[in-house]
Design brief:
This protein is an alpha+beta fold. It has one domain: Porin. Strands 1-2-3-4-5-6-7-8 form an 8-stranded antiparallel beta barrel. A hairpin with a 6-residue loop joins strand 1 and strand 2. The longest helix has 10 residues.
């Protein structure tokens, strides 16, 4: 990347005809703040093209979402941008439960942090690996039994307004780079035509 080139502009150029290896290398070379700026500059068409381009590119593992050196029940923030018309900037916050192997966790727990959280609910989930596809499934049909200190109260995703936002949903995550994933949402097994990108804090 040229010292005079704006990272966002260069990233958008990459997305016009996305090549996974080039995009991965570009994002890996950026600092955290610029990575977040880049993913939060994307629109629906950008994310859809990238989602298709990285299909089968490289596996994503739970140990990359919450690295092994992070203590159990410690929060790891993934800064996100979705393709919804409103409130599109958000975070997915993950933790590793204490009973699982840090190097090869069987599951992670988390919730969605966003402006409308008091109305929609925190959107708790359990994340697991899809071994057949080398992807990660973020399952809102399951909620953890407990949470780290400071996280909101756990609520079912199938009651109240949460039902219309997170109910019966499973997100699929694909790897883009070391810190960045892209996701697609499905409800009751049907693709919703909705995507999002995440960038993990260092």
């Amino acid at each position: 990347m040229s010292a005079t080139t704006d990272p966002v502009s260069e990233f958008k150029a990459h997305l016009s005809q996305p090549k996974p290896i080039e995009i991965s290398q570009f994002l890996d070379a950026l600092g955290h703040e610029d990575r977040v700026r880049c993913i939060r500059s994307t629109g629906r068409a950008d994310q859809q093209r990238l989602w298709d381009a990285v299909d089968g590119f490289a596996p994503v593992r739970l140990a990359e979402i919450v690295p092994p050196d992070i203590a159990a029940m410690e929060t790891v923030r993934h800064f996100g941008k979705n393709t919804l018309p409103l409130f599109s900037e958000f975070e997915k916050r993950f933790c590793r439960p204490p009973e699982v192997d840090p190097a090869q966790p069987s599951e992670l727990h988390g919730f969605n942090y966003q402006t409308m959280q008091p109305v929609t609910g925190p959107g708790y989930f359990v994340a697991v690996e899809d071994a057949k596809r080398s992807e990660v499934l973020v399952d809102y049909r399951r909620v953890p039994a407990n949470h780290p200190e400071g996280w909101p109260e756990i609520r079912s995703n199938e009651r109240g307004l949460s039902r219309f936002v997170y109910g019966f949903m499973v997100d699929t995550l694909r790897r883009v780079s070391q810190h960045v994933t892209i996701g697609s949402a499905a409800r009751k097994g049907k693709d919703m035509g909705s995507w999002f990108m995440l960038s993990r804090e260092p």
